[in-house]
Amino acid sequence: MSFLLSKWTIPLFAWSFVLGTGALKASQPLRVAVASNFAKPLERLIEEFEKRSGISVAASSSSSGKLYFQIMQGAPFDIYLAANHEYPSQLYQQGKVLQPFAYARGRLVMWSQDRSLPLSLGWLQKNYREYRFSIANPKTAPYGQAAKAFLKTMNLHDVQVLQGESVGQAFHFARSSKKVLGLVALSQVRGLSKKDQSRFWELPQDKYPAIIQSGAIVKGRPQQQEAQQFVNFILSSKAQETIASLGYQRGG
C-alpha cells in the first residue's frame, strides 16, 4: 500500500491508497474520491477489481462536501463516490460529471464504548442527558445530516454534541470515551471485532432521512473507459453483495 501526495491531499483524517496486484494496465491509476464511511468497503472492491481488470485504482477519502468542493475546483479525480445523492446531482447540473448512479443505501447506528448500555429508543429518551453525542459535520457530511435529523425527530434538542469533520472522526470521538455516543455508519462498526460490534444499536430508518449514496464519473478525464469499467463493477451483483455484507443496503 502506498500513499498519494499532491496539492489535493486532505491533511486531516483523510488518506489515499493504491492497491497493487502486479502488472497493471494503466500508467496512471484511476483516482476515486470517496466519502469516509465507504473507505474500507472500497478497499475490498478495489482489490477485487484490480485482480479482474489489471487496472490500478487510487482513492482519497474525506467528507462528501469537501470532496465536492475539490472537484468543483478541478481536483484530478476520475470518479466521485458520495454519501448522498445531492452532491453528485449538483455536479451533474453544473456539467462536471456524467449521470449520477446510486451504489448503496447507508445505515445509521448508535455506538458506545460501554458494552453494558441497553441501547434502545426508550433507554435513549430517559438517559440522553448523561451523554455527549458525536456526529459528523452536517454542513459537509450526509451522515451528519442524518444524525442531526434523528436527534431532532427524537426531540432531543438540548443534547451535547461533539462534531467531527467526517463520520470517521465522529467514530473516533465515540471510541475515545464511554460517555460519548457515536451516531455513525453501520459499515464502520462492521469493521470492528465481534466484541466491539456488540456495542451498537441500529437506528430505526423511519427516524432519519434515507442515506442514498450516489456517485458519478467526472467529465473530461483521460480514463473515461476505465472509469466506466469500475462503475460497472461496483454496480454488479457480486459487488453489490459485498457492499450489503459490509453494512449497507443495495444501491439502485
Automatic annotation (TrEMBL):
> GO: which molecular function terms?
metal ion binding; molybdate ion binding
InterPro entries according to UniProt: ModA (IPR005950), ModA/WtpA (IPR050682)
Q: Which domain of life is it from?
A: Bacteria
- Say if the entry is tagged with keyword Signal: yes
* Gene Ontology biological process terms from the UniProt entry: molybdate ion transport
The record ties this protein, via Gene3D superfamilies, to:
Periplasmic binding protein-like II
The UniProt keyword set, sorted, is: Metal-binding, Molybdenum, Signal
The answer to whether UniProt assigns keyword Metal-binding to this entry is yes
**NCBIfam families in UniProt:** modA (TIGR01256)
**What is the official name of this protein in its record?**
Molybdate transport system substrate-binding protein
Q: Please give the organism.
A: Pseudobacteriovorax antillogorgiicola
Taxonomically, what lineage is the organism? Answer: Bacteria, Pseudomonadati, Bdellovibrionota, Oligoflexia, Oligoflexales
